């Protein structure tokens, strides 16, 4: 049965999240984590002791360390705060202002959460020609036909920024695979934690702000725009597609007049929060032993992002696997065969494929955990990371 809300106690709030408990637990972890690392450095020497017999020593060890680190983060309730300062990014950093209010209607409207200015990082650099203009029709001359990726990072709506420290490797690799001239804009959308916690629909509003920044402010044709998202970022990419589709029968509205984006790329997508918000279901998943994510972490993100007074976990915008819809945008979907989201992603693909007119391509990479799109070079699956991006790029070239 689909869960409507994450557990009430899903958000960390015990003695370890407050001082002096926080400091005490961090000191304990300084001792505990190296001891665990030492233990597993020996334990995984024998292949039969690893999470999967197909994994290398490095893959088993780094995946376990990642799981341990994420456990500590959850125990102390750490979330990330954001800033709109450019820092060392210079003109690669942009601040985008909200579009007109009528673009945020429907499911993205809220009496308490309003669109705000957000930041984003260009990879490798901003377009050379960026001047406001009406979007061109596909049959008009365009001096620049290169692809522009609008990317939404993952992290359960609790961490990361899309800036080089956390997303630079993946952004550069994806640009390279998409071909000469490809650029990507990684959005620093509002998070459900930190110094300005912004749950649903705030991050969804940010997808519209970023999309219309490309189309209206920079004059980039939607036919050149590729949406991309990993993990919770995929939730946002799918929400944007559904939101755009909801305006197609509203003649004269700016969103109705736009042609659709060229394609949408989903990597290890979070597309069934009615499952992810259920810690017991996640912890008993067949792939729990081979993934670095656990039920408590998934439920925390779900509860913070989708508080009960705001939205249900089985809402169409959070669980599109339960509410498939028609979209003219071709969708590439990748998932790891060893991750806890594998079965929910399969359900999503089957449901979306059943809608007449939808074009969905599915790639399941055997024996890899969650979000190798972002983590492959760190966890020991660089070849798989590269190959899945090559497959995604080939898909974009075909559509």
UniProtKB/TrEMBL annotation:
Keywords: Hydrolase, Membrane, Transmembrane, Transmembrane helix. Signal peptide: none annotated. Residues 149-373 form the Alpha/beta hydrolase fold-3 domain. The keyword Transmembrane applies. One of its GO terms (molecular function) is hydrolase activity. Pfam families: Abhydrolase_3. The chain crosses the membrane at residues 22-46. PANTHER family: AB HYDROLASE SUPERFAMILY PROTEIN C4A8.06C, ALPHA_BETA HYDROLASE FOLD-3 DOMAIN-CONTAINING PROTEIN-RELATED. This is Alpha/beta-hydrolase. It comes from Aspergillus ibericus CBS 121593. The lineage of its organism: Eukaryota, Fungi, Dikarya, Ascomycota, Pezizomycotina.
